[in-house]
Specification:
By secondary structure, this protein is an alpha/beta fold. The protein is built from ten helices and six strands; from the N terminus they run ααβαβαβαααααβββα.
């Protein structure tokens, strides 16, 4: 806690004063361009990874970067998505998973969640991910299976977010674009889903043109490794 207090003091005495104009502007309102949905994992620092300033990202964080389908839960995810799209008029929604995700480990081994019933209940919103992985990646084990699950889950949550009326309307109007990312903690690399190639690839190689659009069709075909490929 002492470290946090020291950090607050440093922010107030140095960073804040150096960016006074920015914070004065932000006090009048926010106009983020991107809604980022990612994991609560402490190793994920969105502003650091994207090198963005305050006011540029609207962020949702939860265990496993999960988006319950519209109407499936009473948590804050749905309300925050609706606000971001309808009120803030974000142009992009990014769902970002990450390597070594504890939530995805729990999804694969639910027996380890006996002492955490709330976590187990939350991960039921990712049951479709687990089923896709169990049915289509029987040849993978351990780390390879986890990595496939992490990627499948990001794409499954994109399917879920399409069920939100505000998101569906934005996709139809062409004012909203969806993106699927996976961050590798050990290398700093971010992979993006390339809808033109049906695979994840380094984000620098993907480009905006390969973002997941309204008309992107995502099919489960394990023989092509269309989701788990790097």
């Amino acid at each position: 806690m002492e470290k946090l207090v020291r950090g607050i003091h440093e922010f107030q005495t140095t960073h804040f004063s150096e960016h006074q104009d920015l914070f004065t502007q932000l006090s009048k309102g926010q106009h983020p361009e991107t809604l980022l949905i990612t994991c609560s994992d402490s190793r994920i620092v969105p502003d650091l990874l994207t090198q963005t300033q305050p006011g540029e990202l609207f962020v949702i964080r939860n265990a496993g970067n999960i988006v319950p389908p519209y109407g499936a839960a009473n948590g804050g995810e749905g309300a925050t998505i609706e606000f971001a799209v309808s009120a803030l008029k974000v142009s992009h929604i990014v769902i970002m998973g990450h390597s070594h995700c504890g939530a995805m480990k729990g999804l694969l081994k639910p027996e380890g969640l006996a002492s955490m019933p709330l976590v187990a209940s939350w991960l039921r919103h990712a049951e479709a991910t687990r089923r896709v992985v169990m049915d289509n990646y029987q040849d993978l084990t351990e780390e390879d299976l986890l990595n496939a699950t992490i990627k499948e889950n990001v794409l499954m949550q994109l399917d879920n977010i399409r069920t939100y009326p505000a998101v569906a309307a934005g996709l139809v109007k062409g004012t909203l674009t969806l993106h699927a990312w996976v961050y590798h903690i050990e290398s700093g690399q971010i992979l993006a889903y390339d809808s033109t190639q049906s695979r994840f690839a380094p984000i620098a190689d993907v480009g905006m043109a390969a973002a997941v659009s309204r008309n992107t069709i995502i099919e489960a075909k394990p023989e092509t490794a269309r989701r788990a490929a790097v």
